[in-house]
């Protein structure tokens, strides 16, 4: 805290509500990969984070948590979680640490607007029961860390964009990211089916745009899961631009087409006496048997022996390229993060200070930075929060700093 007097204004009844539900309640706090690797997972301008990551990175965060009673562990993909598997412990550990550092936390205190004097930050107007709205709080420096716009029930309702815009900052349009997609057809009968080791390829206006290998899951309206989330940023932007978006699922990515056809020929010889459904069941999860039979024009109860020649090739093609039109994506309630936000052009990456308003700083998801899954989004919030906190304390001449947000106790 560098000796600064810090007031944290939180509009919900408790700080860090979103943090408490991260990682399906387990909180993927950060990632152990080195800085250069992490930057590859970040959009739209990873280099912006060099200073913030350089000052407070994954090992600093882990050390801070461990020193405050939150033991951690690393899992597959170098992802770090609390040893207890409870996101709640991370939130409570940080809140307790902040309180011990002397941070005053005011809950149910909603910042309504920023107050500027002679173009410089001078305080905020706050609404807080029972006094109500319009209470002015003076501060030498302010940090806006109001999060993005996704999962609005957690308190992140895009207020920071309003504050930034009203004080002359540019905003890159906020879009849902790390979000499920809606497809035509949707396969509600396969809802909940989790596919491992599949490849999902993204096609934009008929051209291959990207491809990811890993896990995907069927929902009643389309597809979800890690590889879908990873491609979702490009999908959301392509749909917003009115482009034609399709995805294809390769259910047998380990086999190229000739090898797959050879394998099918062997399977067919072994199963020629059974039904089409028996044959398909030997190749596919049960929930997809009807779907494949429909696309091949086969009666599931009919003899497997009919599946030969062009029909067998069509089956191989379908296994390699199960095609879906992408009609849309989940909304703010489903998006794990918000892409877009306060423009990086209006912020100084060395301090997180505004280039438009003196004594004002921004941190976390409010800023136009977002990342793939893997703990990177929280690391962005912690690193930019730390840097903004340090910079604000220095700027204030160790007098006062103010923040609204969960991670700004630096
Ligand atoms: C379901 C889910 C799971 C996730 N899992 C992970 C994960 O495992 N790992 C990972 O790295 N990332 C994960 N994320 C993303 C990560 O949670 C966010 O990127 C991160 O919380 C952003 O931190 P922040 O402090 O910028 O904003 P937030 O955590 O959104 O905090 C902003 C705070 O500001 C408060 N606030 C807003 N407006 C006002 C106002 N006007 N006045 C006062 N207070 C205000 C809000 O109530 C909120 O408490 C997940 C997100 C979701 C939704």
Q: Compounds present? A: flavin-adenine dinucleotide
Supply the number of helical segments: 11
Radius of gyration: 25 Å
> How many E strands?
23
Percent strand equals 25-35%
Low-confidence stretches: 399-410
Q: Pairing-aware structural class of the strands and helices?
A: alpha+beta
The mean pLDDT is: 94
Counting copies of identical and different chains, the oligomeric state is single chain
Biggest beta sheet summary: 6 strands, antiparallel, barrel
Structure write-up:
- This protein has 410 residues and is an alpha+beta fold.
- Residues 399-410 have low confidence and may be disordered.
- It has a six-stranded antiparallel barrel. It has a five-stranded parallel β-sheet with strand order 6-1-23-10-21, with helices on one face. Strands 2-5-4 form a three-stranded antiparallel β-sheet.
- Helices cover 29% and strands 29% of the residues.
- The radius of gyration is 25 Å and the shape is elongated.
- It binds flavin-adenine dinucleotide (FAD).
- The site of flavin-adenine dinucleotide (FAD) has 36 residues, from strand 7 and helix 11.
List keywords for this structure.
single chain, 410 residues, 6-stranded antiparallel β-barrel, 5-stranded parallel β-sheet, 11 helices, disordered C terminus, 29% strand, binds flavin-adenine dinucleotide, 29% helix
